[in-house]
Write a structure and sequence with these properties.
By secondary structure, the chain is mostly helical. The chain is built from seven helices and no strands. Helix 1 packs across helix 3.
Length: 98
């Protein structure tokens, strides 16, 4: 799961395994191992990945669908009361569909 997410994030950002490996201080082969699910990144690499992609570790580990909950909440707090009501109504509509 984490390998697929790393690959998707890397492609979304438009960088190569080599560029990511340089940031992480690893070999490109190690990044490949992570993406293929052949190795699991240690704690410090998980944190570096989260920082680099500006995402939560929960998103990286597949525990959340929200990439950056802090930003999500911050954006939510800047909305007007009317906009918040619209969003809440929309969420309820989506929930009833599922």
């Amino acid at each position: 799961m984490i390998g697929k997410i790393i690959r998707e994030l890397r492609i979304e950002k438009g960088i190569t395994q080599n560029e990511l490996s340089n940031y992480l201080g690893l070999t490109p082969k190690m990044v490949s191992f992570y993406e293929l699910g052949e190795r699991f990144p240690p704690y410090d690499i998980i944190n570096k990945l989260a920082d680099y992609f500006n995402i939560s570790t929960d998103y990286l580990l597949g525990r959340s669908n929200i990439k950056n909950p802090e930003k999500f909440i911050q954006d939510y707090r800047t909305l007007s009361k009317e906009s918040i009501k619209e969003i809440e109504k929309f969420i309820q509509q989506l929930k009833t569909r599922n």
